Amino acid sequence: xxxxxxxxxxxxxxxxxxxxxxxxxxxxxxxxxxxxxxxxxxxxxxxxxxxxxxxxxxxxxxxxxxxxxxxxxxxxxxxxxxxxxxxxxxxxxxxxxxxxxxxxxxxxxxxxxxxxxxxxxxx
Length: 123
Prior knowledge:
The chain is of the alpha+beta class. The chain has one domain: GTP Cyclohydrolase I, domain 2 (2-Layer Sandwich), CATH 3.30.1130. It contains three helices and four strands; from the N terminus they run ββαααββ. A four-stranded antiparallel β-sheet has the order 1-2-3-4, with helices on one face. α2 crosses α3. It is elongated.
């Protein structure tokens, strides 16, 4: 399975359990790998036949800001469901990090994998 990926997508959104967190924007970082048949796009150099990572990056940020939640686990699940539905992605691995959550850690977060990887170019 081919993969289209976005690494280090950094954005500000409202997230957190505590009342003070609901009043501020915090930084989140996403690493995302999406299963896709890139051969179809490459055949005739067609953007319409691949996953447009620029469009998807904007969609992730807009989705996160339109759907505030308490937990990064919840946000990761909702982003995965949104992307798979909106873009017909058969498989993805999403790592969502909150670098400012623990003062003596570089970052903390969750990593989820959803869908099924398809072998070959049958997507």
